[in-house]
Amino acid sequence: MLKQNWPYRLWVWLSLLVPLYFGLVSLHFALSQAYVVQDDARLHIVWLQQWMDPDLFPQDAIAHYYQTIQAGGFKALYWSMAQLGIEPLLLAKLLPTLLALITTVYLFQFSLALLPVPAVAFLATLLLNQNIWFKDDLISATPRAFVYPLLAAFLYYLVRRRFACCLMLIGLTGWVYPQLVLVELGLVLLQRRIGWGLLAVGVAVLVILPYQQQVAQEFGALLSAAEMQQMPEFGPQGRREYFGVDPLSFALRGASGLRLPLFPPILWIGVALPFLRWRPEGDSPDVPKLRPLAELLLVSLTLFLLAHLLFPRLYLPSRYTFYSLRIVMAVAAGMVLFRMLEAGWCWWRRKMQFRVSDWVKLGLALLGIAVITVVPALPRLFLSGQGWISGEYPQLYRFLQQQPKASLIASLTPEADNLPAFTLRSVLVSRELALAYHPAFYQLMQQRIVDLVRAQYSPDLSATQAVLNRYGIDFLVIDHQFAQSDYLLQQDWLIHSSFQDQIHATIARLQQGETPALSRVQGYCTVLSEDNLSILDVGCLNRLQSENVRSTG
What superkingdom heads the lineage (predicted)? Predict the structure, then answer.
């Protein structure tokens, strides 16, 4: 066993400083602006604010859907923190640093179990942190952010043969991110321990089935592959591309692809690991154990292929390789990089005289080390990959925040995605929120979108009023260019949808010169304008219609 002397402790502390740096810089950015939210938090975290104020999002079908599809452990964590007075949206900004620290501790120990060299463990944790802090999953604090600490901990306990801990992690994982359970289960089965394998299967069934049954009872089964293939939402440029894309994109990108890590590029030196020659020395041979990495790759790739064959019964294929590849490549790259540095150090010590060319080589090596460590740590660089959404309409948000909590806002603008997070008010529908996986939910969203398009572009104000009142809409947020046919053509989620015929029919009428009733009355009922957006008061539209009826009568 590796003695925990001062060099070991030094490498541990250096490893922990890396996620602390990334986390504190990210947290400072997240708290430095009044209106900023992470992309995925808009879907999965905002609705949990109901635990701080039950009056928020009343009878909101969207809030109910996104709360229902979350696993119980994820909700339990946010609920318990809400009872302590920590708002979910604030907790989502605090959690990533803690999750990264836990990941770093376990990955460090896992790397040591494979190769007892603390410097290698440090390099592995450094490279993984550089990757995950540049992505939008850890920083989101949504269920997929918990995959890194859960998987790293599972791998450590597995390589240490602590199967009881592995069973506990399988249960915890199923309570947070059920898809990862299949990866963990496959790894346990590869250990050929029949008893532990049967127990692992039992735990996996116990945690996954109740979750699936709950979602199925509320929203029915997922769409079938045949149904998805007929829907533009899953085709090229659709809301969730899967079918009809080019073969290279299908294999490598999106929901269907392997999702290979591309940053930092140094990760790719890990592919050289199987070809390196390791020389045992003394009583502590530095020959790495590669079998755990190979098994993780084997299980992940097998599940990736099964997910394609059984699509969508195992949900999205990319989920089985996305996280595993990052851990495998970080650990492998750490080993290879250490070997390179070790070879360079040996070369330095053997050299008796240095020529100009030798100093050039040394300078280039030091420059490479600086690039590897410094460039990925530049805030401007890694913050740009985290998917932060900064609000651009502060006056609009403040106005809507002052409205009754039961207010319902309708909008076809991209800003509708942000309104629940920045105003804590319900929206009728939006691009990001209208996911098409469960028919019961998406049919409701489709009907709302079609009705809203009809209301916004109808030349008859009474028809517009009827739709808005049917849904109980209080405010309508419109773009100043909404009446131009090009505006709808720019909305990809409308053009590449199952209701695209209605959208194209509306565009055709606009091109023929038809004028929406709203464009004639928006000047009377606009309560606030900011940049290219205006808020229309539906109550004002009702009063205008009533006055028109009386004057006509």
Answer: Bacteria
The Cα-based distances of 348 to 44, 117, 343, 344, 362 in angstroms read 53, 21, 9, 6, 9
pLDDT in tens, 308-356: 999 999 999 999 999 999 999 999 999 999 988 887 766 666 665 666 6
Which residues, 6 or more positions from 46, have their beta carbon under 8 angstroms from its beta carbon?
37, 88, 89, 420, 421, 424
pLDDT in tens, 116-166: 999 999 999 999 999 999 999 999 999 999 999 999 999 999 999 999 999
Question: What pLDDT digit, counting tens, does each position of 94-122 carry?
Answer: 999 999 999 999 999 999 999 999 999 99
**CA gap 325, 322 in Å, rounded:** 6
504: pLDDT strictly greater than 60: yes
Asked if 132 and 100 count as a contact pair (C-beta separation under 8 A), the reply is yes
Helix (H) / strand (E) element for 534: namely strand 533-537
Helix orientation angle between 291-309 and 147-159, rounded to the nearest 10 degrees: 130
In whole angstroms, give the CA distance from residue 455 to residue 116. 67
Of 446, 408, 417, nearest in space to 538 by CA: 408
Helix (H) or strand (E) holding 478: strand 475-479
pLDDT of residue 279: 65
47 is written with which tokens? Answer: 């609705």
Three-state secondary structure call for residue 466? helix
Q: Is 390 exposed, middle or buried (0-12, 13-18, 19+ CB in 10 A)?
A: exposed
Integer Cα distance of 10 and 17 in angstroms: 11
Query: DSSP string covering 346-391, please?
Result: HHHHH-SS--HHHHHHHHHHHHHHHHHHHGGG-HHHHHHTS-EEE-
Report d(CA 350, CA 309) in Å as an integer.
56
pLDDT for residue 546: 64
- Distance CA(376)–CA(21), nearest Å, equals 12
Classify residue 259 as left (phi > 0), alpha (psi -120 to 50) or beta. Answer: left
* Number of C-beta neighbours around residue 222 at 10 A: 18
535, β-bridge pairs = 477, 528
Q: Is 489 buried (19+), middle (13-18) or exposed (0-12) by CB count in 10 A? A: middle
Q: How confident is the model at residue 396 (pLDDT cuts 50, 70, 90)?
A: very high
Most distant pair of Cα atoms in the chain: their distance: 106
CATH 3.40.50 is the classification of domain 394-552: yes
Each domain of the chain, given as residue ranges in start order, spans 15-221+258-277+288-379, 394-552
Core vs surface per residue 424-448: b (16+ CB within 10 A) or e: bbbbbbbbbbbbbbbbebbebbbeb
Q: Which two tokens stand for residue 90?
A: 């604030």
Closest CA to 206 of 227, 181, 242: 181
Q: Where are the beta strands (DSSP E) in 269-339?
A: none
Which burial class, exposed, middle or buried, applies to 366 when counting CB atoms under 10 A from its CB (0-12, 13-18, 19+)?
A: exposed
